[in-house]
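Schema walkthrough. Field components (list of strings):
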Amino acid sequence: MATRIFSIANQKGGSGKTTLTMNLAAGLNKRGRTLVIDADPQGSASQWSGSADEQNPFPVSVISVSGNLTHEVNRFSNDYEYVVIDCPPTLETENTTKAMVAADTILIPVLPSPVDLWASIRLANTIEQIKQIKPDLRAHLIVNQLEPRSALSRAMKDALEEFDIPALTTSLRRRAIYRNVAIEGSSVYCAGKVAQPAVDEIEQIIEEVL
Amino acid sequence: MSIADKLTKSVRQAKESSTGESENMASATAPQDTPAKPATDTPQSKPSASKPKAKSKDSKRLEPEAPLPPLPTRRVWPD
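Field assembly_structure (string):
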């Protein structure tokens, strides 16, 4: 079975890349062996998994890569069914481009805010350029921290249609549980009933992208 | 105008200005990129993965250097 590689990218910091990476990886790991590659020099994914208790480790292996990402992806991907790459929050490093070129699917979390949308336009342009050499590449925007009662959140649907990249129909709502599981070095899958709505969101995202 | 309309309009404008920037970048780099392409050049349909990035770096470097005389350039921007 060919390895499916997901790159979680957005040059804007705080868009939810690591949160999506870790919870998506936990969900994918229920379907097949999964690896997280932490390509962000800030090491947030590594920090996340390192926060786990020894008795309850994060269920997915996390490796930190600061060197040649392509080399590391090739080296590890054969041993895993799914690889999720947490990209650096910039387009100015080679590893961001390499992560997007290596990916089968790029997921771009965007917050429901004008500034985040404007910042994502440059990334969308870069993805269009990569598609010229990799036409099968799939890319999706995902609204993160959606607040359904906020007018701005409701306005996102129309604004996202301006992008050439389609948005997933599933959004991630703003939920405290996503922050709480980071402290625990865990995922929403291990947080009991209170996290069920978040689990449902991640599951819907997985169903959409697989 | 509703928030939805304002947001959509702002994204459209940002997209248009981003396209404009790309075009400007292309024209700024054109004198450096275009001369005397050898016959063995890679066809346009197969750009390398790093090509867009390299181009953007070049264009950034060109902007401050353009108004300066050739010699001081090295002192202003040491390698």
